Amino acid sequence: MPRVLLLLPSTGYRNDDFLAAAAALGVEIVAAANHCHRLAPAWGFAPIMALHFDQPELALETVLREIGGKPDAVLAVDDAGVELAALLAQRFGLPGNSAAAVRRVRDKLAFRRLLEEHEFPYPAFHHLAGGADPQSLVRALEFPVVVKARRLSASRGVIRVDDAAALGRAVRRVRSIQSRADRDAEALGLVIERFIPGREYALEGVLERGLLTTLALFDKPDPLDGPYFEETLYVTPSRLAEKIQGAIREAVARACRAAGLTHGPIHAEMRVNDEGVWLLEVAARSIGGLCGRALRYFLGRSLEELILRQAIGAPLALASLGGAAGVMMIPIPRRGIYHGVEGLAEAQAIPGITEVRLTAEPGQIIVPPPEGASYLGFIFSRTVSPAAAEDALRAAHRLLRFDIRAEYAASAASAAAKT
């Protein structure tokens, strides 16, 4: 039985999907996770379940001490574990990307420098060091610009700024977000880059010995123009002209070669306008959240199963059933405490809707971007055409009525009574 070391984020959406895929394939999973190292002993967890994914060299030594033998493959479920997975694959002599390549594409500043070095289209960008005054860059900036945390994902810590007056506020906010999410925040600083107009798209693929196989190209029908960049709809197959789709595939493949990525899942985001294809990111991981479930009909199996098959050296065996599919990451309209939803049965009854999966829990504090990095849930559609898949998602979403209440209702009422 193949044995796979799987790096599971403690708050990951996809842990269960990977474990189910492993069971279907008869793959033994050796689990490692990043639960709190202070609480894990009280929960009875072994040290391998309380790794510091963001300190991969330290975590590497813990895994080597605890695992008990060499696995057949190492996989990270999401972005947090990819560098550790690369280090482990290198140490075990297994196929995988180098840690240097993974670090290069995870870091927005390093990736922009890579694009510049290899003559890709790229926006004018600047590094704002930790603690530096953003006003020192104003003369060099061409507004609108986008202020970005360097290693966060899912639109967290990303804000569009239209003029110099708003720059300082945005920088303070992104610095605060990054400081809570990244132990290296001060040393990293921020990226400030020119805003790229155009529509966004996403490519899902796998690399094998440096060759890219495209699994799907997604349209993002909603404009993502800021000031925040919460993603909502993904629909595939793309409605772009084949010539532009080919240009996207070539740009992603060339960026992977330039970065030194050679093996495993790839998720790339890009904007397209009259000037061409502008890569926003190329990540050494698969699509986030539960969005991969939209691809089941196109792959003939789950995305997680396909990734595991590649990891253990089994044929990919793709078997598209045709048609179109889409997913909506249900946006969080405002910060507050989630209490529930109405209209779920009606939304699930919309023709073309295959599943409405709510992931927020009653009593949970929910936060939209740029601070938050989660969703209320996911809606999936399966139809004959991309337009129909998009329409079904929008129709289902309109029927959902979410109960989101203020965090401090009692305090607010008390204050109002005193005025």
Largest sheet: 4 strands, antiparallel
* Helix content percent band: 25-40%
Which structural class is indicated by helix and strand composition?
alpha+beta
User: Runs with pLDDT <50, length 5+?
Assistant: none
How many runs of DSSP E, i.e. beta strands?
18
Which CATH class of the largest domain?
Alpha Beta
The whole-angstrom Rg is 22 Å
Shape: globular
Mean model confidence by pLDDT: 94
Distinct helical segment count: 13
CATH third-tier fold name of the largest domain: Rossmann fold
> What strand line-up does the widest sheet have?
4-7-5-6
Terminal CA distance: 70 Å
**Beta-strand percentage range:** 25-35%
The CATH architecture assignment of the largest domain turns out to be 3-Layer(aba) Sandwich
Number of spatially distinct domains: 4
